[in-house]
Amino acid sequence: MGQTLTIKTIPYSIKIADSFFTRFKGLMFRKDPLMTEGLWIIPCNSIHMCFMHFAIDAVFLNKEGRIVKIIEGIKPWQFVKPIKNAYSVIELPIGTIRWLGLKLGEVIKL
Protein backbone atom coordinates (compact mmCIF):
# COMPACT_ATOMS: atom_id res chain seq x y z
CA MET A 1 0.00 0.00 0.00
CA GLY A 2 1.46 3.42 -1.05
CA GLN A 3 1.95 6.48 1.08
CA THR A 4 -0.87 9.04 0.92
CA LEU A 5 0.20 12.31 -0.66
CA THR A 6 -0.91 15.33 1.35
CA ILE A 7 -0.87 18.67 -0.43
CA LYS A 8 -1.11 21.86 1.63
CA THR A 9 -1.56 25.44 0.54
CA ILE A 10 -0.33 28.51 2.40
CA PRO A 11 -3.18 31.05 2.80
CA TYR A 12 -0.84 34.05 2.63
CA SER A 13 0.60 36.31 -0.02
CA ILE A 14 4.00 34.78 -0.75
CA LYS A 15 6.73 36.93 -2.30
CA ILE A 16 9.49 35.19 -4.24
CA ALA A 17 13.16 35.95 -3.68
CA ASP A 18 15.05 34.34 -6.55
CA SER A 19 17.70 36.88 -7.56
CA PHE A 20 21.04 37.35 -5.81
CA PHE A 21 19.94 40.61 -4.19
CA THR A 22 16.45 39.52 -3.07
CA ARG A 23 17.83 36.26 -1.67
CA PHE A 24 20.65 38.08 0.12
CA LYS A 25 18.35 40.73 1.62
CA GLY A 26 15.51 38.39 2.55
CA LEU A 27 13.72 39.92 5.55
CA MET A 28 16.78 41.67 6.99
CA PHE A 29 16.16 45.12 8.47
CA ARG A 30 12.39 44.80 8.21
CA LYS A 31 10.82 46.34 11.33
CA ASP A 32 7.29 44.88 11.24
CA PRO A 33 6.82 41.14 11.79
CA LEU A 34 5.20 39.00 9.13
CA MET A 35 1.44 38.76 9.59
CA THR A 36 -0.35 37.43 6.50
CA GLU A 37 2.59 37.10 4.15
CA GLY A 38 5.68 35.05 3.59
CA LEU A 39 8.91 34.94 1.62
CA TRP A 40 9.92 32.00 -0.60
CA ILE A 41 13.69 31.96 -1.13
CA ILE A 42 14.82 29.95 -4.17
CA PRO A 43 17.36 28.35 -4.18
CA CYS A 44 18.18 28.17 -0.48
CA ASN A 45 19.09 25.38 1.94
CA SER A 46 20.07 27.41 5.05
CA ILE A 47 19.14 30.74 6.62
CA HIS A 48 20.43 33.23 9.14
CA MET A 49 18.51 35.70 11.26
CA CYS A 50 21.14 38.45 11.34
CA PHE A 51 19.68 41.97 11.45
CA MET A 52 16.18 40.55 11.97
CA HIS A 53 13.74 42.22 14.36
CA PHE A 54 11.26 39.34 14.86
CA ALA A 55 11.04 35.55 14.95
CA ILE A 56 9.72 33.43 12.06
CA ASP A 57 8.76 29.88 11.16
CA ALA A 58 10.71 28.25 8.29
CA VAL A 59 9.63 25.43 5.99
CA PHE A 60 12.37 23.87 3.85
CA LEU A 61 11.28 22.19 0.61
CA ASN A 62 12.96 19.87 -1.88
CA LYS A 63 12.74 20.48 -5.65
CA GLU A 64 9.33 18.75 -5.76
CA GLY A 65 7.90 21.03 -3.06
CA ARG A 66 7.93 18.32 -0.38
CA ILE A 67 8.67 19.47 3.17
CA VAL A 68 12.08 18.17 4.27
CA LYS A 69 12.47 20.26 7.45
CA ILE A 70 10.27 22.51 9.60
CA ILE A 71 11.62 24.90 12.20
CA GLU A 72 9.32 26.87 14.46
CA GLY A 73 10.15 30.15 16.17
CA ILE A 74 13.59 30.98 14.80
CA LYS A 75 14.71 34.04 16.75
CA PRO A 76 16.82 37.00 15.60
CA TRP A 77 20.55 36.23 15.35
CA GLN A 78 20.04 32.45 15.15
CA PHE A 79 21.43 30.35 12.30
CA VAL A 80 20.08 27.28 10.50
CA LYS A 81 22.81 25.05 9.05
CA PRO A 82 22.36 23.67 5.53
CA ILE A 83 19.47 21.21 5.34
CA LYS A 84 20.09 18.01 3.38
CA ASN A 85 17.90 17.79 0.24
CA ALA A 86 16.48 21.31 0.74
CA TYR A 87 16.13 23.38 -2.42
CA SER A 88 14.14 26.33 -1.09
CA VAL A 89 12.67 27.77 2.11
CA ILE A 90 9.45 29.57 2.90
CA GLU A 91 9.76 32.07 5.75
CA LEU A 92 6.41 32.48 7.47
CA PRO A 93 4.84 34.32 10.41
CA ILE A 94 5.63 32.71 13.73
CA GLY A 95 2.97 30.13 14.64
CA THR A 96 2.08 29.27 11.02
CA ILE A 97 3.55 25.75 11.12
CA ARG A 98 1.43 24.83 14.12
CA TRP A 99 -1.67 26.69 12.86
CA LEU A 100 -1.63 24.88 9.50
CA GLY A 101 -0.45 21.58 10.98
CA LEU A 102 2.42 21.30 8.51
CA LYS A 103 4.34 18.02 8.66
CA LEU A 104 7.42 16.47 7.07
CA GLY A 105 6.70 14.82 3.74
CA GLU A 106 3.71 16.99 2.86
CA VAL A 107 3.80 18.90 -0.42
CA ILE A 108 3.34 22.66 -0.41
CA LYS A 109 1.49 24.15 -3.34
CA LEU A 110 2.11 27.84 -3.97
Model description:
- A 5-stranded mixed beta sheet has the order 2-3-8-5-6. A two-stranded parallel sheet has the order 1-9.
- The protein has helices spanning 20-25, 96-100, and strands at residues 7-9, 13-17, 37-41, 47-48, 56-61, 67-74, 79-80, 88-93, 107-109.
- The model has no long low-confidence stretch (mean pLDDT 94).
- It has a single domain (7-109), classed as Jelly Rolls, CATH 2.60.120.
- The longest helix has 6 residues, at 20-25.
- The radius of gyration is 13 Å and the shape is globular.
- 25% of the residues are buried.
- The protein has 110 residues and is mostly beta strands.
- The protein is built from 2 helices and 9 strands; from the N terminus they run ββαββββββαβ.
- This is DUF192 domain-containing protein.
Indicate the topology.
Elements: E1 7-9, E2 13-17, H1 20-25, E3 37-41, E4 47-48, E5 56-61, E6 67-74, E7 79-80, E8 88-93, H2 96-100, E9 107-109
Parallel strand pairs: 1-9, 2-3
Antiparallel strand pairs: 3-8, 4-7, 5-6, 5-8
Major sheet attributes? 5 strands, mixed
Give Rg in angstroms: 13 Å
What is the β-strand count? 9
In round numbers, the mean pLDDT is 94
How far is it from the N-terminal to the C-terminal residue, by CA?
28 Å
Q: Might you state the CATH topology name?
A: Jelly Rolls
Shape estimate: globular
Count of the separate structural domains: 1
Structural class by secondary-structure content: mainly beta
CATH class: Mainly Beta
Please report which band the strand proportion falls in: under 5%, 5-15%, 15-25%, 25-35%, 35-45% or over 45%. Answer: 35-45%
Helix proportion: 10-25%
Specify the number of helices. 2
Organism: Neobacillus massiliamazoniensis
Protein name: DUF192 domain-containing protein
InterPro entries: DUF192, Saro_0823-like_sf
